[in-house]
Design a protein that fits this description.
Length: 215
């Protein structure tokens, strides 16, 4: 069971592993937590700029496209999936700057949200969870790592593209050296990533088929 913060994180960070697991006959399911977006009221300048760079003028169009893209990727991967429908941090009206969104600190105003997600995770029965480690400090990733502390049957994955930005891979080199699994993404992963058309040129271009690390 892969816990994916957003609509693309699982494929970006574990796409080649998932393909490998499927070939080995393992059953894989992806739960994406933050799959909804606000109605566009009081959007921060950062979020408006992110919408524009993704090629959209409205939050509604953006959300519909992101959902459609992820469903196409899941279809190619041939995995079960769930979209849990919690609102993305960039659209919750709390984290109004890039620095706040990637600052690694979950605001107290998200306490209620944390409890809701924690209760849903408690209801999931699975042999092994794959959980984001929080590389890069995105609050949604950090929130999931925090909630995973009570999960005993888990491994962490180091998220792309964050792992390969700002020398994060050097800061975590000791974990990479001792990793449970390291796999280089290939052409199959590239093809699946292209399903995310609105995001591909932002963080998934052809030079960035990132190496995947599970610790």
């Amino acid at each position: 069971m892969v816990l994916s913060p957003h609509l693309d994180d699982a494929v970006l960070s574990l796409g080649q592993h998932i393909l490998k697991w499927k070939k080995e006959g393992k059953k894989v399911k992806i739960i994406t937590i933050f799959t909804k977006f606000s109605e566009g009221k009081n959007l921060s300048g950062y979020s408006k700029d992110y919408l524009r760079k993704s090629g959209f003028n409205s939050v509604k169009e953006f959300g519909e496209a992101r959902t459609r893209e992820d469903k196409e990727a899941m279809k190619i991967l041939r995995v079960d999936y769930e979209h849990w429908g919690f609102v993305d941090a960039g659209f919750r009206g709390i984290y109004k700057t890039r620095e706040a969104l990637l600052g690694g600190r979950v605001d107290k105003r998200d306490d209620s949200l944390e409890k809701q997600i924690e209760e849903k995770i408690k209801g999931v029965k699975v042999d092994l969870f794959m959980v984001p480690y929080g590389v890069g400090g995105h609050v949604d990733h950090v929130l999931l790592k925090k909630l995973s502390q009570k999960i005993t049957n888990k491994y962490y994955y180091l998220e792309s593209p964050y792992l390969w930005q700002n020398l994060n891979f050097l800061k975590l080199s000791w974990k990479i050296i001792r990793a449970r699994s390291v796999v280089r993404g290939g052409e199959e992963k590239r093809r699946i990533l292209r399903s995310y058309q609105s995001q591909y040129n932002l963080s998934m271009n052809d030079e960035n088929i990132f190496t995947e690390v599970i610790i």
